[in-house]
């Protein structure tokens, strides 16, 4: 089961996701990127049904770009979160997307923010959030060690603590994780944490 | 974790509204959960429609958010057309109609409406998920802790309480009831409304 978690630091936000693509007992790949860059200052980590995840996050990404083309200014993180929730809510009683989302962004006026949006379209702004079986470990570690004004180094230490817990305590633990960060400079990939390397497989 | 899906108990909630002497109080818990896991401890369940009208929405959080957006939209449109705020009785009928529209695919929520009507007379009501209104002169309750809330309110309530006493009563009724319900709690949120002012208070209870 896929794990996604995230937290807000002093002037940045981090989203972490596992990177295994699994069907039943088979692991298709171990370097699947589940955190999409929506625009220069937003990242969306998603977990759930593989097809829905890929399609829905791409749909949101393209709509965020469309808004910027039409209006000349980018959407705020809050607006993006509410738009995403609206799309999930509209589809909920017709053709539901089975996707859980952690959306993080940096706005010039309001700083970093993190939004929890589950697959039945409940939206909540939070400082730390997690989905999946890994959430039972990640949330507890974050409850213990998280502080509002963490630096990037402290936050990454906490992220690594969460990853260690997931790897050691979850029976079918995902081996690899990707970490992405968003701050004043923008959204970018921060690091991978790999305990199994796909030597012969190309990055997707 | 696999637990049988009970849609009204998925997120957990507790809501209560009480009538006092020319005032009313509406209170909710603050937990947002996903079945057994707690996701947030600052979730807002009570929303202001206008200065003298509040609605609390218990049940599925997603539907509460959707319904709140629809109701605010309808009230803003009403305000633009009528150039006045909606009376609580009218608003209750609006909510009832909107819920019954979805009779065969309902919103999974139970609203609690509280307001000051004509001559600042307090009005409270609740309804089920398909809009069956239940008016009351004393108190109304909703949510996963509703059974405990009925008992607590019945024993603690007195008619014509002043604002301070009403606040104490509703707070004690809420906190003692959510302590018996694992799906609601993590503090309380109380709005006390008199004809002249609105007071909002956060309660600290058992944080579990």
UniProtKB/TrEMBL annotation, chain A:
Keywords: Cytoplasm, Nucleus, Proteasome. CDD domains: proteasome_beta_type_2. It is found in: Cytoplasm; Nucleus. InterPro entries: Ntn_hydrolases_N, Proteasome_alpha, Proteasome_beta2, Proteasome_sua/b, Proteasome_suB-type. PROSITE patterns: PROTEASOME_BETA_2 (PS51476). The keyword Nucleus applies. SUPFAM superfamilies: N-terminal nucleophile aminohydrolases (Ntn hydrolases). It comes from the Eukaryota. Its main location: cytoplasm. Pfam families: Proteasome. Component of the proteasome, a multicatalytic proteinase complex which is characterized by its ability to cleave peptides with Arg, Phe, Tyr, Leu, and Glu adjacent to the leaving group at neutral or slightly basic pH. The proteasome has an ATP-dependent proteolytic activity. Belongs to the peptidase T1B family. Component of the proteasome complex. This is Proteasome subunit beta. It comes from Penstemon davidsonii.
UniProtKB/TrEMBL annotation, chain B:
Transmembrane segments: none annotated. The keyword Hydrolase does not apply. Coiled coil: none annotated. InterPro entries: Ntn_hydrolases_N, Proteasome_beta_3, Proteasome_bsu_CS, Proteasome_sua/b, Proteasome_suB-type. It is found in: Cytoplasm; Nucleus. Keywords: Cytoplasm, Nucleus, Proteasome. The keyword Nucleus applies. Belongs to the peptidase T1B family. Component of the proteasome complex. Component of the proteasome, a multicatalytic proteinase complex which is characterized by its ability to cleave peptides with Arg, Phe, Tyr, Leu, and Glu adjacent to the leaving group at neutral or slightly basic pH. The proteasome has an ATP-dependent proteolytic activity. This is Proteasome subunit beta.
């Amino acid at each position: 089961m896929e794990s996604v978690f995230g937290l807000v630091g002093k002037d940045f936000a981090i989203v972490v996701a596992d990177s295994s693509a699994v069907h039943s007992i088979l692991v298709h790949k171990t370097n699947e990127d589940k955190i999409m860059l929506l625009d220069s200052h937003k990242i969306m980590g998603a977990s759930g049904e593989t097809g829905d995840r890929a399609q829905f996050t791409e749909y949101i990404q393209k709509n965020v770009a469309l808004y910027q083309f039409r209006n000349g200014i980018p959407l705020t993180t809050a607006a993006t979160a509410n738009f995403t929730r609206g799309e999930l809510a509209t589809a909920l009683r017709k053709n539901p997307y089975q996707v859980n989302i952690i959306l993080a962004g940096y706005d010039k006026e309001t700083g970093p923010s993190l939004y929890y949006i589950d697959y039945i379209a409940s939206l909540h702004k939070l400082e730390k959030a997690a989905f999946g079986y890994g959430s039972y470990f990640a949330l507890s570690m974050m409850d213990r060690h998280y502080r509002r004004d963490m630096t990037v180094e402290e936050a990454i230490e906490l992220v690594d603590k969460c990853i260690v817990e997931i790897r050691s305590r979850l029976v079918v633990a995902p081996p690899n994780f990707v970490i992405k960060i968003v701050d004043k400079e923008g959204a970018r990939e921060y690091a991978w944490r790999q305990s199994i390397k796909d030597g012969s497989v190309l990055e997707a | 974790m696999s637990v049988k899906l009970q849609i009204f108990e998925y997120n957990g909630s507790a809501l209560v509204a009480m009538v006092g002497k020319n005032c009313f109080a509406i209170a909710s818990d603050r937990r947002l959960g996903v079945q057994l896991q707690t996701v947030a401890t600052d979730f807002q369940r009570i929303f202001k429609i206008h200065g003298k009208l509040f609605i609390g929405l218990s049940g599925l959080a997603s539907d509460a958010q959707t319904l709140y957006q629809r109701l605010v939209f309808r009230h803003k449109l009403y305000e633009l057309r009528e150039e006045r705020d909606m009376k609580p009785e009218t608003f209750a009928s609006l909510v009832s109609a909107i819920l019954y529209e979805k009779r065969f695919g309902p919103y999974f929520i139970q609203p609690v409406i509280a307001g000051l009507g004509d001559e600042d007379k307090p009005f409270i009501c609740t309804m089920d998920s398909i809009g069956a209104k239940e008016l009351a002169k004393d108190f109304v309750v909703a949510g996963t802790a509703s059974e405990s809330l009925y008992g607590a309110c019945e024993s603690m309530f007195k008619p014509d309480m002043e604002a301070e006493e009403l606040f104490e009563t509703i707070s004690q009724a809420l906190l003692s009831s959510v302590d018996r319900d694992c799906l609601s709690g993590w503090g309380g949120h109380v709005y006390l409304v008199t004809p002249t002012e609105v007071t909002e208070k956060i309660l600290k209870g058992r944080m579990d």
